[in-house]
Specification:
The complex is a heterodimer of chains A (about 210) and B (about 140). Chain A is built from 9 helices and 3 strands, in the order αααααββααααβ. With about 210 residues, chain A is mainly alpha-helical. Chain A has a domain of about 35 residues. In chain A, a hairpin with a 7-residue loop joins strand 1 and strand 2. Chain B is globular. Classes of the chains: A mainly alpha (about 210), B mainly alpha (about 140). At the A-B interface, helix 3 of A face helix 2, helix 3 and helix 5 of B.
Chain lengths: ~210, ~140
């Protein structure tokens, strides 16, 4: 009977000992454990950047040379993005919202820090042939950042009906794809552009 | 017959070692060329750098767009919006053109801080990094 109780105690004490030894280093290395807990692979889509690979410091980003002293003097994006509005794509930053909410105040002219941009508030609605919602292009958010001459007339002819736009061209880096998918929000965010629902079609309507 | 790889063990092993090294180099290259961790819209500028004996330049779009609107560089300073379309010489920068409009020692660090811009890994090709989702030449 006594032997049995001793045998029963052995795994229990072993467990307690293990817990105690495991708890001490876990406490000490809490920040390291938190960053290690971020997944390094995206189980949903392997082409999407997994959380552990987002906004890495320059020395770990795969293009900066970690043996170069200058690399370590550069700010980490994660730190630079702390005051900004978060999003789920690109830099993980919503740049337009960050600007609207005055989280940043980027200069509009190099020599004059107080110069205000010329904001042109005109929406262009484009009817889309397929079943996707129609596109609403807002000049407002674009002119907050850009000059008219950045897009007109080289990328888009400033004339109604003069521009044939296709998703294939955009994916090849033309038209909207000059910026979107490279520096502005990527084309995977369909509904940010395709935002105006088509009027409902009656079930018995003739085609 | 030292040249016969079937008889001479040494000559037979040597190419194996070389292929092993090649594989290792290939794996290393693949690791280096995978831009998975670079920040969205980072730009590698290597049109002239390595040919002139300096590491490639990494331009971080995110840092600059927190401080300047697109039009400042892409209109005032004359940077084309197509990677590879800009011919930026160090002499231009020192003369106050392109990067040198700000990187002059007063608004931002001056061009004497070589390693802050020339900070790229050797062999990087000019282009947009950080999981760009649109490809192609970007011509219009």
């Amino acid at each position: 009977m006594r032997l049995r109780s001793i045998i029963a105690c052995v795994p229990l004490t072993a467990c307690l000992l293990l817990l105690a030894t495991a708890a001490i280093p876990a406490f000490a290395a809490e920040p390291a454990a938190a960053s290690a807990a971020l997944p390094t692979a995206n189980p949903f889509n392997r082409l999407l950047k997994p959380p552990a690979k987002r906004n890495l410091p320059p020395a770990e980003d795969g293009i900066h040379d970690p043996t170069n002293d200058g690399t370590h003097a550069l700010q980490s994006p994660a730190q630079g993005f702390l005051p900004l509005v978060k999003s789920n794509f690109g830099n993980q930053v919503d740049w337009v919202k960050s600007l609207d909410e005055n989280r940043i105040n980027p200069r509009n002219e190099l020599a004059d820090p107080t110069a205000e941009p010329f904001v042109f508030d005109l929406n262009i609605e484009r009817e889309v042939k397929g079943s996707m919602p129609d596109v609403v292009y807002p000049h407002k958010q674009h002119t907050q950042w850009l000059d008219c001459a950045n897009c007109h007339p080289d990328i888009f002819i400033p004339q109604k009906g003069a521009n044939q736009i296709s998703m294939a061209a955009i994916l090849m880096g033309k038209q909207c794809g000059v910026c979107h998918g490279k520096v502005a929000f990527p084309v995977s965010e369909c509904r940010k552009c395709h935002s105006k629902n088509k009027p409902p079609v009656a079930a018995n309507a003739k085609p | 017959m030292p040249a016969n790889p079937d008889i001479n063990g040494e000559t037979h092993r040597a190419p194996q070692g070389r292929t092993g090294l090649k594989k290792l180099l290939l794996v290393l290259l693949l690791c280096l060329s995978a831009p998975a961790a670079a920040e969205y819209a980072d730009v590698v500028l290597n049109k002239r750098s390595e040919a002139a004996g300096m590491p490639p330049v990494i331009f971080q779009h995110w840092f600059h767009r927190e401080r300047f609107r697109c039009k400042v560089c892409h209109s005032e300073l004359g940077f084309q919006m197509r990677v590879g379309a800009n011919d930026v010489l160090m002499t231009d920068i020192i003369d106050g053109k392109f990067c040198g409009a700000c990187h002059n020692g007063s608004l931002a660090w001056g061009p004497e801080n070589c390693e802050l811009c020339h900070s790229g890994l050797p062999g990087l090709k000019t282009g947009i990094r950080g999981d760009a989702e649109t490809r192609g030449p970007g011509r219009w």
